[in-house]
Amino acid sequence: MTPEQKIELQNTIDRVKTGGCSSVESHSVIFEECINFIKPKNILEIGFFCGNSSLMMLELSKKYNSKLTSVDPFLDNVTNDYLNSVGHPEEIGGDSVQLAAVESVRANYGNRFKFIHKRSLAASIDGDLNEKYDLMFCDGDHWRPGIDIDIQIALALKIPYILFDDFNKEFDGVRQAFAQVQNRFAALKLYTKEHDGSDCLFVANLDVIKIQ
Ligand SMILES: C[S@@+](CC[C@H](N)C(=O)[O-])C[C@H]1O[C@@H](n2cnc3c(N)ncnc32)[C@H](O)[C@@H]1O
Q1: Residue 209 vs residues 159, 184, 186: alpha-carbon distances, Å
Q2: What residue ranges of the chain have pLDDT lower than 70?
Q3: How far apart (Å, rounded) are the C-alpha atoms in residues 70 and 22?
Q4: Residue 189 CA, ligand 1 centroid: distance in Å
Q5: What is the pLDDT of residue 84?
Q6: Which of 7, 113, 122, 144 is the right S-S partner for 173, CB 3.0 to 4.6 Å?
Q7: Which run of H or E residues covers position 146?
Q8: Is the CB of residue 19 below 6 angstroms from any atom belonging to ligand 1?
Q9: Sign of CA dihedral 138, 167, 27, 21
Q10: Residue 208: closest CA among 114, 123, 136
């Protein structure tokens, strides 16, 4: 991405008023590379939080007119300290901020964006994940068995590509969960996010890739 494109993306984040764990600095190049590699029709995101990753993926996939479904029960309430840190000092913490971000993304991206206010497992059991997805961004529950569940959802839905966030953080279970199923996947690329020392792992689901 050019520096100008990064500035434009940040301006869009500021205008739409999303926030989040991911930022233009940490994730935009990763999303851009994965999206241009897959040219996805339909992305499934586990973990919306305050919407930055949804927004960046929707922006970077505009040329493919990709749709994105994001699933989040909003377990991590947003604090005013957090909001101050991402430049929304006037807001009040809690679910209302996250729901406002959902509405704002919906207003800006229309029917390209769908939000499911549930845990991924509940969404799966309730039959809400009823589309064909070609990329999962896995950034919800980072602990086992939660991450095991999300991997099983990806396998059951035959999603050909997964991008795992926070792959190498020592305190979570993403790497351990992936190790149990790694024979089902080919690792395509490990991206290091230098600012916080964690990685994103981009993988191909071998079962699906072989069939295609
Ligand atoms: C790290 S944040 C996501 C950050 C966001 N993707 C970004 O980059 O800005 C994790 C989010 O996952 C949600 N979450 C936790 N467990 C989940 C589950 N089982 N299904 C869906 N979302 C979950 C939490 O409520 C939280 O908002």
Answers
A1: 9, 10, 10
A2: 76-94, 212
A3: 15
A4: 22
A5: 61
A6: 144
A7: helix 146-156
A8: no
A9: positive
A10: 136
Our mutation pick for probing the ligand 1 site, out of 116, 141, 164, counting the most ligand atoms within 8 A of Cβ, is 141
Q: 2 to each of 8, 11, 12, 30, 55, how far by Cα in Å? A: 10, 14, 15, 14, 18
The whole-number pLDDT of residue 20 equals: 84
Pocket test for ligand 1, best of 24, 45, 48 (most atoms within 8 A of CB): 48
In the reported structure, the alpha carbon of residue 73 is separated from the centroid of ligand 1 by a whole-number distance in angstroms of 8
pLDDT value at residue 197: 72
| 119-to-86, 141, 181 alpha-carbon distances in Å | 25, 9, 22
Q: How far is the CA of 21 from the centre of ligand 1 (A)?
A: 9
Is residue 70 within 6 Å of ligand 1 at its C-beta? no
Q: What confidence score (pLDDT) does residue 96 get?
A: 78
pLDDT at 114: 98
Q: Cα–Cα distance between 56 and 113 in angstroms, integer?
A: 12
Q: Is 31 touching ligand 1 by the criterion CB < 6 Å?
A: no
**Which residue ranges form the domains of the chain, and what is each CATH number?**
3-211 (3.40.50.150)
Q: Are 35 and 57 in contact (CB under 8 A)?
A: yes
* Backbone φ, ψ for residue 193 (5° rounding): -95, 95
177 CB under 6 A from ligand 1?
Answer: no
